[in-house]
Write a structure and sequence with these properties.
Helix 2 packs across helix 3. The longest helix has 13 residues. The strands form seven sheets. The chain has a six-stranded antiparallel β-sheet. Strands 6-5-4-1-7 form a five-stranded antiparallel β-sheet. The protein has a three-stranded antiparallel β-sheet with strand order 11-8-14, with no helix packed on it. The protein is mainly beta. Helices cover 11% and strands 35% of the residues. A hairpin with a 2-residue loop joins strand 18 and strand 19.
Amino acid sequence: MKAVVHSPICPLMSQPRRDCELADEALFGMVVEVLEETTPEYWRVRTHYRYEGYAPVNCLLTGDQAVQQWTALPKKVVLHKNTCDVMADPKVQSWPIVTLTMGAVVAVTAAPETDPEKGEPTGWQRVSLPGGQEGYVRTSWLDTCYDSPIDLPEDRLRQRLCDTAKLFARAHYRWGGKTPLGVDCSGLVSMSYLLNGIMIWRDASIREGFPIHAIEREALKPADLMFFPGHVAMYLGDQRYIHSTGKAGSDGVVINSLNPAAPDYREDLPEKITGLGSYF
């Protein structure tokens, strides 16, 4: 059985209860596979990127027809704002139906709204939500929802992955998080790839069956991954890397340097590198 996430963020817990470690977050519009109806409140699910956890049942929309209808619709992803209000009407004075985060998925089945008198774009896009409700978001906040890797030359794809990671700048650290409302180290790098259609393992390690492979230090290029004990970062080039860290004084997404002479050098990490990985 499959289900659609219809809450802005669906926590995936490590155990079927609230008072335990957050393992991951599934985002609005994602389709998950229900593996087990564990308790009346929590079901064990698997995401499309093959990560598992226990989801609150009230975050899920179930029913074969509803899931099939949602799956068949063309999608867009919230990408150009940290958060996105879905409005009841195409005007800022309307009221928000739901507030989504970057990475949320909505369905788009109509052309962007136009002014009936002037024939000019209004800047609003009508969207459909799981369950059939409709609303409006700013057209410029949405982008292509990729379900396979973007077909770009290597240099351009590397730069796009780095730029996507930078969209999470100033997010605070949240264990298991993956949105601008809070993100952990593997959430940052895995979402940076996922938003570009590439599914890598969600944890801070290289996992067989996923497209990250080990490389040597001399091969390190932008968008490659740097692994530490229980931690992962994305290399940006010029000896700089971006990561989400719970270290006091950083407390979230920061850019640091591998150069000991740089003011943002973090001396406790470079000596602890356990491996490097690349998609390319």
